[in-house]
Amino acid sequence: MVKKTTTGKTLFRMYYNRGDIPVCLEFRNRNKITWKVDIDTIDYRHYLPIFFDGLREIEHPYKILARQGIIDMLRHGKNKLLAVIPQIVIPIKRALNTRNTDIICSTLKILQQLVTSTDMVGETLVPYYRQILPILNVYKNVNKNVGDGIDYSQQKQLNIGDSVQETLQILERYGGQDAFINIKYIIPTYESCILH
C-alpha cells in the first residue's frame, strides 16, 4: 500500500478566499463554474500556475473550481500555454506526489488534456519528465484485481494503473522523437505504443 501525503494549503485556496480568483460556482449547478471576467483576457502566466496548484484540493468548492478552471483555460488559451509550461511543472509534481488516487487520476487527465490541447506542448514537456514521471513508476502497474466482479472505478476513470499507461502513451505520441527514450529512462518497464 502506498502512503498518502496531506495536500496542505494551496495557493489556489488562499487566492480564492481572498477574492483574487475570477471564478465562482454557478448558482443553479454546483458542479459548473462561471468566469467573472472574459477568459480570453486572463493573464495565463499568473493564473494558470495557481489553478494547477489547486489540483491538490480535495474539498468542495476548491476542487471543482480549480479543475474546471484549468479545463476552461486549456480550451481557450491555446497560444498562451507554451510560455507557462515551466511554471506549471512544480504544481503538477506536487499533485502527483500527494499519493491520493483521486488527485493523481484527475491530474493525469488534466495532463493529457494539456498535452493534446495545442501543438508543441508535448514536446515542450519532455525536458520536465524527470520531475513529473518518477511517481508514475510507483503506480504504473497498480490495477484492481476484482476477479469475476465488475470494477466500477473504470467508469469514473479512477483505475490508476490504466490512467498512468494512457498518460504515458499520450506523452509519447505528442512528445516528439525524444519522448520515448526519456520515458523509458524514468520508467524502464514502459513499452512504446508507437514502435510496435
Compact summary:
The protein has helices at residues 11-18, 44-53, 62-76, 85-96, 101-117, 121-125, 129-132, 134-139, 160-174, 179-186; strands at residues 23-25, 33-35. The protein contains 10 helices and 2 strands, in the order αββααααααααα. The radius of gyration is 17 Å and the shape is globular.
What can you see in these coordinates?
Helix 2 packs antiparallel against helix 3 (about 60-75) and helix 5 (about 100-115) runs parallel beside helix 9. The protein is about 50% helix and about 5% strand. It contains ten helices and two strands; from the N terminus they run H-E-E-H-H-H-H-H-H-H-H-H. It has a two-stranded antiparallel ribbon. With about 200 residues, the chain is mostly helical. The protein has helices at about 10-20, 45-55, 60-75, 85-95, 100-115, 120-125, 130, 135-140, 160-175, 180-185, and strands at about 25, 35. The chain has a single domain, classed as Serine Threonine Protein Phosphatase 5, Tetratricopeptide repeat, CATH 1.25.40.90. The radius of gyration is 17 Å and the shape is globular.
